[in-house]
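Lecture notes, unit on protein representations.

Consider one protein chain, 691 amino acids long.
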Amino acid sequence: MQRPQEAELQEGLGAYQEVTPEEAAAVLELMEEHEPLLNNSVAFAEQLSQELQELDEANLRALISSEQQVTQLMSSIDEALAEVGRVEQTLQVCDELLGSVKQQMDHIQQENALLHRVASNRTRLMEEIQFLTTQLQLSREHRAALSRADLSSPAAVGACTAAAQALSTCMAIPIHPSYRKLQAVAEQLILFETLKQNFENSFTNHITNIFELQGNSQSPALGTVVAPSHGHHHQELLPYTPLMAWLRNINPVLFWDLPKVYSQNLGRLYEQEIKALFEQAKIALSGRRKASLQETWEKPTGRTRRESQEGTPDRGNISRVLEQVLSQLQPLCASEQKFLQEFFWLGCDSVELQGSPEEPPCTKPRSQAEEATAQVLSELFSCLEPELRAFLDFCSRAQPLGSLQVLGTLSDSVLGTWNSSSASSPFLLSLLGNVLLLAKSNFNKCIGTLCKELEEAKTPSRMRGGILPCVSRFQELVAFSEELFRTSQRRGELDKAQLRLASSVFSSISSLSSANLKVSPDMVMMENFHHVHNFLCQKNIPCLEDKKREAKQRFREHMEKYVTTSLGQLLERLQHFFEGVKARLAQGVKEEEVSFQLAYSKQELRKVIEKHPGKEVRRALESLYRTIHKYLSPEENLLPVVWKAMEQEFIRQYREFEGLIQRCYAGAGIALDFTMEDLLSYFNCITMSNM
């Protein structure tokens, strides 16, 4: 059992509280203030007790002085509580009054909502009544215009257009399905539909009658290569363009029958006019004498003179007539295409009556509009392509080079100026593009025939040399084709043809050079290849540059062969002897041992040299000069060139012979009967005597 002192101590420890930082700071401050007394604990305790007593006395005096104020405060609190009770009673009375007012306001609000709904319904009803009575109302004048369907005058057409516009507006108004059950509305809609159907039938009958009358009309006989204009037919129909737009919007099925009717009726008129146009074109080309190709080669000058005497057109007439035909077809197709796009509104998804006939409200690109008219145009001009193809065949048969003129003219038309012209007809360009394939085929056939006849050509029996007829014909063909395609930028087919002709004439020169001619084949080829080269140099045709170089090379080759062969005949034994000497040297025989060969001994060499004295060599050269002068054409002026080549080759052979003699027969005292000075004198005298 614990003692009382221990119990008190334990109780004191249990009641211990930890000093806070503020309390610790106050203790420290107090200790600093009474620092001198810290060493005397009794004095320090007494000082603290005295201060504590003073504080208790001060607190007691403060409590005694504040008792009156507390009494006053409690009295104010009692009065405030009484006032709060009175305010609560007043608020309760107000709340009861406001509850009655709220009920009255809710009732008024409900009545106002009902009144507003009644007013709104009356307004909407009035609007719907006005809508039905005004928007679904067609004037008496418009009904009369649609009923009469008078389209005989511009004024009547204008009245019908305005009435159709108003009718479309009425019929396009959206109507609630329930309104259609109203008898008045149903009757009005039936009236609109009746007016529409009646006017549709009247309008389509009227337009169809115009199409038939125009298709049955007769074109005037002009007697020249001219196509009649359809401008008056278009002007007759254009006033109906707004009504065509109306019909397209209101009844597309009925509308799309009209272009077919138009193409069927007007197609007959166009067929008549197009056939007449091509007939006049054939008449313009008639009377031409159809000479054979061989005849034109043999007598080109006579053929031209005969044509002039007979008064027939020159050979460029095909190009001019074809250009005239195309110049007539181009505006004909262009104006018809423009009319179709304006009148039938082709190329547009939808149209409006407000658009003017001159400017259809089409927003699609022009290419799509052209595509939309292609079918109508192809039906309208169904006879154009067959007639044009037949005419091109006629032109190709009219003369040997007709297909060339046709190809050149068509190429310029299809690929030339028309593509950059705003007034061109894409339909006609497409058609001409198809026909151009036929023209190319005919042209290739013609070139094939010409090449074959060039390769198989024969020379006249009396011809002894000079320029071959096939070369002259080749020159004529190339010159004519270059003149025809002078301004053309597209000559791919012509370049191929000229290459084929050049190859054929080269082959013909080679084959004809040895065909029953009394002159050397090398001379014939030399002269003809020189002629071809000079001609190609004058023309400067890019595609024939390789042929020009080939002609020059072959001219030089055959001139060298001709010179070598001619001199070989003149010094035949000498040349044969020294050819053998060179063969022995090539076999390995030493130069000093050649003379010991029996066939090439010094005695044999002297015999060969004796066969070629200087006088005989000069006479042989004079004879050779006369032969060259006789068979070479003076126009080519090749005599000085060939004679100079003869001199150079003779000098070369002379030096070769002298060199072999000096090497293989040294010290034998053997030499040719003529010197270099003699040889130069021979050539100079022959040249001077023939100037």
